[in-house]
Design goal:
The protein is mostly beta strands. The protein has four domains: 35 residues; 99 residues, Immunoglobulin-like (Sandwich); 95 residues, Immunoglobulins (Immunoglobulin-like, Sandwich), CATH 2.60.40.10; 85 residues, Immunoglobulin-like (Sandwich), CATH 2.60.40.420. The chain is built from two helices and 28 strands. Helix 1 runs antiparallel to helix 2. The N terminus is likely disordered.
């Protein structure tokens, strides 16, 4: 372009065109200033597109699982701060977050895009988002809290089929769960408890935040089955039955088992004033307790299981005894009690 300007200048300064010389120079300057120069471009920058929540965005709502939230979700799209229509916004939820309808929608004349959120069927926190490709602020996050639906069923949670010695608690609580139609635990529902062959720690326990009602159960004084019952109105599954078993008492620190041909333990150490209990084990045949001295007194004639013998040792010392059928003071079936 500069070369054209020079040629035009020369043409205008020839003798026959001297009057036009000034015009040629002026035209060259004007052409150059109108973009003929190689200045690398320029012009107006593209507008900035932004997506954001509206003042009534519908964020942080609470609702019931499987149902639509009361208010729609809303975002606004602007270009350099001015609402713009016709921009396509895509709506989505995370796993178990329910459905958004519509899932894709263009902004209206006010730059606003809306959708309806039907919550998923899992109670707790859920999330959704609005996305506009290339826009500042995208994606826009939304959250909601889903509460359980109405209670529909009662089911076993844990603690079934336990065992405990007579008059002792079961190892773990017995637990029942109240759920809605989707399996979510429902809180604040009363569950009644009872037991035969044992006792429960409470006759009515409301469910906790997870829908669980729990009791501790203590075995009764008799060996055998324990039947535990949980009930809650007309819920499906109510009443529930849990099973447990009361077993015979095990050996204690002041117990001696009378076994064929031996005492277990053969030597037992106790404090003064302790009652020692000899218990004939299953199958034990023709045994008794006979003192080497005066204590413990002779238990009686040899006997078979099931048999028990008790004696309280009040005076510190070492006391030896034996079975007169299967032992003697010096050998065979014999034992020792050390009283401290």
């Amino acid at each position: 372009m500069l070369r054209s300007h020079l040629i035009l200048g020369r043409f205008m300064t020839r003798p026959n065109y001297a009057p036009l010389a000034g015009f040629g120079i002026l035209l060259g300057v004007v052409l150059y200033g109108c973009g003929g120069g190689d200045d690398g471009g320029g012009g107006t920058p593209p507008p900035t597109t932004t997506i954001a929540k509206t003042a009534t965005s519908g964020d942080v709502q609470s609702g019931t699982v499987g149902q639509a939230l009361a208010n729609p979700l809303e975002v606004v799209v602007t270009e350099d701060g001015v609402p713009v229509s016709g921009r396509t916004v895509t709506w989505a939820t995370t796993a178990s977050g329910g459905l958004l309808d519509p899932a894709s929608v263009a902004t209206d004349a006010d730059g606003v895009a809306t959708t309806t959120w039907t919550l998923g069927t899992t109670s707790g926190s859920q999330s959704a988002s609005a996305t506009l490709s290339g826009a500042s602020g995208s994606p826009v996050p939304f959250t909601a809290t889903a509460a359980p639906d109405a209670p529909t069923s009662l089911s076993k949670q844990s603690g079934d089929v336990q065992t405990a010695e007579v008059n002792t608690p079961l190892p773990a609580p017995v637990e029942a769960k109240v759920s809605d139609q989707f399996g979510n635990g429902v809180s604040g529902i009363d569950v009644g408890w009872s037991a035969s062959g044992g006792t429960v720690s409470a006759t009515s326990v409301p469910t906790n935040a997870a829908g669980i009602s729990a009791v501790n159960v203590t075995a009764g004084g008799a060996e055998g089955p324990i039947i535990i019952t949980a009930a809650s109105g007309t819920l499906v599954g109510s009443p529930l039955t849990f099973n447990a078993t009361a077993t015979p008492p095990g050996p204690t620190s002041n117990s001696v088992s009378v076994v064929n041909d031996r005492f277990e333990p053969s030597t037992l150490t106790v404090a003064a004033g302790t009652e020692v209990v000899w218990t004939w084990s299953a199958g034990a045949f023709q045994h008794n307790v006979v003192p080497v001295g005066t204590e413990p007194p002779r238990s009686g004639n040899p006997a078979n299981a099931p048999t028990t013998y008790r004696f309280t040792f009040d005076t510190p010392g070492t006391y030896n005894y034996y079975c007169e059928v299967h032992g003697s003071p010096a050998f065979g079936m014999r034992g020792t009690i050390i009283v401290q």
